[in-house]
Amino acid sequence: MRIFSLLFASIALVMLTMFLIYVFRGPVDPLIAGGIFVSFLSCLIPALLLLKPFEPREELLRRREKARKEREERRSSTNEPRRG
User: Fold this and answer.
1) CB 3.0-4.6 Å disulfide test: which of 2, 29, 36, 71 passes with 19?
2) What DSSP element (H or E) covers 4?
């Protein structure tokens, strides 16, 4: 999901750059400027939506805490000397 979000964000950045160049360079046709800006927004919105987690906040925090505890348990078990 992050790859698609970064792809949409990079396209949105290019569209914003095109819009700014078009507006500052010369005579501006409002229809073309509006079309470029709408293209920018249509790429930015999916990028922001894809970055938003789909899980509720509490469930996300619980899952992260569980993963952290598992990592600590694995780390502590590998640090203990083996008895044989």
Assistant:
1) 36
2) helix 2-25
In order of 75, 78, 80, the CA distances from 84 in angstroms are 20, 15, 13
Amino acid occupying residue 28:
V
Q: Tokens in use for 27?
A: 């005579």
3-state secondary structure 11-62: HHHHHHHHHHHHHHHCCCCHHHHHHHHHHHHHHHHHHHHHHCCCCCHHHHHH
Q: Write down the pTM of the prediction.
A: 0.62
d(CA 61, CA 28): 49
pLDDT digits (tens, 9 = 90+) for 29-69: 999 999 999 999 999 999 888 887 676 778 878 888 998 99
